[in-house]
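Figure 2 data, in text form.
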Amino acid sequence: MEPTPMDDTQRPPQEQDQQPGLQHEMDPEPVSEKSPSLYSGEQKLSGKTAIVTGGDSGIGRAVAVAFAEAGAHVVVAYLDEQEDAEKTARMVEEKGAKVLLVPGDVGEPEHCSKIVDKAIMTFGSIDVLVNNAGVQYPQENIGDISPEQLLKTFRTNIFSQFYLVQAALPHMKKGSCIINTASVTAYKGSPQLLDYSATKGAIVSFTRSLSIALAEKGIRVNAVAPGPIWTPLIPATFPAEKVAKFGHDVPMKRAGEPAEVAPCYLFLSTDASSYISGQVLHPNGGEVVNG
């Protein structure tokens, strides 16, 4: 169990020099589990298999652990953050669930097919798909966004969601669900994250449209739009002085922890949300957005 308190304690200034960042280098590390557990004794996903992209750390790790505690086996897809991914695997296994680690770039359609193929070969089914992987590269002006950056951001954040749904859908049956990670920036915008915000807006529209397209198949599609959450992406994105103040501009005056976001994904993955599709949940520290 990670003891870091979920309060308004300031984080020390820190930076990382790679995307999407390494959780084990953060101070303090993000909280991936709540204590006492919200899920003890509830095996709502027993016998099911979930794929979680970006599952090595941050929100993805917290979701993987929550799913495992609810009884699911978890496929953790991640880029190359091996140490973080192995810790996630240990946390999943401590819950009595099985885990499969699949490294690689979800911006490549062939790799997305590989994730799905490995999931089927290992566990035999795909019941929940969580499209969570993402990157962000702030720029002061739109003219500073290079074609290379634009393509990288879109490939990782939204193209990957198309690729994974295309690969997974033939294996998903009635009662399965897809959960996409959007962002509060899809609703309020971000002048320094123009391309990132654009992908998150696309994810909201993708979620709504796909939910309609799959309704007759009995497959639900929803999204979660987190606000400022303490994940490796933050020190990997912003200068140290901004990291120290991260999250203090929301009504709750603090950044959220991944463990405070994971319950949204758990709710949307179970029969408790059986009449909800095409919707977005907003764990964002009290910011009111229309969406």
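Caption note: The chain has one domain: 49-281.
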